[in-house]
Write a structure and sequence with these properties.
Layout lengths: L7 E5 L5 H25 L4 H13 L2 H26 L7 H18 L6 H30 L3 H20 L23 E2 L2 E2 L1 H18 L1 H11 L1 H6 L4 H28 L10 H11 L4 H25 L4 H22 E5 L6
Helix pairs in contact: 1-13, 2-3, 2-12, 3-7, 3-8, 3-10, 3-11, 3-12, 4-5, 4-6, 4-10, 5-6, 5-10, 7-8, 8-10, 11-12, 12-13
């Protein structure tokens, strides 16, 4: 019996125009907005009024803009940190822990040396300490991956909780302020990042990192090795590359940048340290990196969008009495639609042609 071709079949796109891909992303965003509108209707809220409140909350006033930028800084910085690893197909899910360890490294000098160094020197030492701690925390799973091919996804994920546990011990033990408070006192002003236009200067650091990461990945020898490793590890070996060295070096670069994000959070945003200082930026940044296709400049737009949604949605509760959890639902819908659109960018559905009689 002759086997018939299925009614629909899925094939990988060999080539797609940028305009077509952008159209698909735009349609996905529109669908997400419509689905979000349905959520607001269920909550007896006008979608137009709700979305207007989100936009005004994020960009309507100077204070809102500053808060949006503050949310954007660690999100963009962490996405930049993950880009080299993901390009190499080394799935670093440990940015949350690397940020936490970086914050811990910075806090050590902020707490113990705030009165022993000049302001600028102290901040530089804190930043270097944070980068070193982040790099060392990233080195552990990278070494095991390069040496014994362990699963880096699980390894880096588990290290997150160990890092959080370390800081939880410190904030309830050696670094605790008032006994029983479980709180580390705020840093001395000498250990706090200065503000530029009302926001700590971390926003300048991450914008510089955007250009540095673009050049690093596109125009350097290291970036080329990362790209080859991502395509085929065997090809990299055949080309004479030191695979062990490339894996460890790339992971440590990623960890160092994540640690720097921890420094900016501890010294700039929170001006103290606590176990939840990473605030899920290490996980949300995975979506930012993936949606941007590891392009540092696109990461700026994606992280700004998510930061605006986070800040704007938080104003819904006060402005319209909408539960705060609705903001997470709207953000989740947008991320789901944008990530789902990747299927239509990479694949196409072909319908079976009618057979000739």
């Amino acid at each position: 019996m002759e086997k018939r071709e299925p009614l629909f079949r899925i094939t990988r796109r060999q080539d797609i125009k940028k305009s077509t891909a952008y159209t698909i992303y735009l349609l996905a965003f529109v669908i997400a907005i419509l689905l979000g509108s349905l959520v607001f209707v269920i909550c007896n809220v006008s979608p137009v009024t709700a979305y207007s409140a989100i936009i005004n909350g994020a960009f309507g006033k100077s204070t809102g803009i500053r808060q949006t930028v503050k949310i954007m800084i660690p999100l963009l910085g962490t996405a930049l940190a993950l880009a080299p690893c993901f390009k190499m197909k080394y799935w670093n899910i440990g940015a949350e822990g690397q940020i936490t360890m970086g914050a811990m490294g910075a806090a050590f000098f902020a707490i113990n040396f705030y009165d022993k160094m000049p302001h600028v020197v102290l901040l530089l030492v804190m930043a270097l300490s944070a980068m070193l701690m982040g790099a060392l925390w990233s080195f552990i799973p990278a070494f095991f991956k390069a040496k014994w091919n362990t699963n880096e996804t699980l390894f880096t994920l588990m290290l997150n909780y160990i890092a959080i546990g370390f800081v939880a011990y410190l904030q309830g033990g050696p670094w605790e302020g008032k006994e029983g408070s479980q709180i580390v006192p705020n840093f001395n002003s000498n250990a706090v990042l200065p503000k530029v236009f009302g926001v700590h200067m971390g926003w300048i650091i991450v914008l510089i990192l955007v250009f540095v990461m673009f050049i690093y990945m596109k125009y350097t020898k290291h970036g080329y090795e990362i790209s080859v490793m991502g395509d085929s590890e065997n090809t990299a070996r055949y080309a004479g590359m030191d695979v062990f060295k490339v894996i460890v070096r790339t992971a440590m670069v990623s960890g160092a940048i994540s640690g720097l994000v921890g420094f900016m959070l501890a010294s700039g945003q929170d001006q103290t340290i606590y176990s939840g200082i990473a605030a899920n930026n290490g996980f949300t940044a995975i979506s930012v990196a993936w949606l941007s296709k590891l392009n540092p400049f696109v990461m700026v737009l994606i992280s700004l969008l998510l930061a605006a949604l986070s800040k704007g949605s938080s104003s819904l509760k006060t402005a319209m009495g909408v539960p705060a959890s609705i903001s997470d639902i709207i953000t989740g819908i947008i991320l789901l639609c944008l990530l789902g659109s990747e299927f239509f960018v990479n694949f196409k559905i072909i319908r079976r042609q009618k057979e000739d009689k």
